[in-house]
Protein: MFS transporter
Organism: Brevibacillus reuszeri
Amino acid sequence: MNVSLFRNRNFVLFLIRESLSLSGTIFLNISLALYILALTGSATQFASVLSLAIIPHLILGPLAGVIVDRMNKRTLILILESGRAFCLFMLFVSSLLSPIQAEVLYICVILFSACDVFAAPAYVTLMPSIVKKEELNDANALDTTIVETVRVLAPFLGTVVYSQYGISTVFLIHAVLCLFSVAATCLIVIPQAIKKDVASTILHDMKTGLQSFTQDKRIFSLVLNGMLTHLFLFPFVLLGFPFLIKQVFLGSDLDFGLVESLQTAGSLCSITGVMLLQKRYTLPVNIGIGIIGLIVFVCPLLFLVHPGFFQTLQHQPLLVVGYFGAVSFLLFFAFGTYGVFFRTFYQQTIDSIMLGRFVSVMAMLFAISRFAGFHLYGKLFDSYPLLYPIVILGIGMMLKLLMHIPFLQDEKKRKSQQAKCATSGSLKN
């Protein structure tokens, strides 16, 4: 790993900013999840609330990327983080005057999601601006390591604070973390980029952003693979795990917090997978290895359909935490490894002036997939035996593996063409 990146002042500030911002987001999200799940008690209704966060992605997705590509990334992040801090502080003050209403939290979910629509592409496109192209893989790996190290305790601490002090204190803590994030962002210096397509219209920029998905078969395959993750895997984990732990096995808030912390620990440890694989295999192969890892680590969920194992979990609270914690750790270990290579590939492949548009459209497609997945699993967990959602998850994971085949085929074809060009060039010389 290239530790010399820590001598890059902008990169260090970037890590600090991201760590603070995401720690606060996780802190808030787990508290909101516990509050809303306790309020509804239904997987279907819980899925409907989670789906609210997807609405801004559907409405603003393509436009957000154009705005990100046109604006100064640092300025945009400053505006978004400052606005989030202000809203959180107002929510804290309001909650001191009267109990916070569920409707207000629903509005918060939509509002903060709207901020994320712009923040996500700004964050991804900022990285290539502060590190060299050949350093992106190491930079993404270090980013994952540092961020996940800071976040590893956030879910557990979030549940402790929420359980002991309520949602108001959670608002205050997140607001403070956002302010520190703003301070770190102010110190980042972004090199002046060479502007292109100055005379283009917003509609033209949106159209070129969509073309990124059709011009390169590898990118098309990569994005479809990601959509399958957000359709089948993420909804199962984000909706199914809390529902099973809290409603089916009657676990506590702290039990769920521990499982969430183990998810983060898995992401943190995934850096070892990246280090072992990045020098041995190519990016396409490493992405495929990550997919296979996800399939393998989904298999332990099959134990849930065994009546004896299910009954044992009902009578052993510690086993519930250990089981879901272990599965979470392994899944996020594989996904973290897969995610680093996934992100590095499109950062290296997509032109930097179009990267914001690409990321925002991709985020919109992922949001559509999560929307469908939340409602699918909400109905399955409420109305059908556990076998049904687990089988659906298994089918989705196999589709991910099949979707990677066109990626590998196109990559092989490109290498073959490059080899022929190199050979013909050497013959001419």
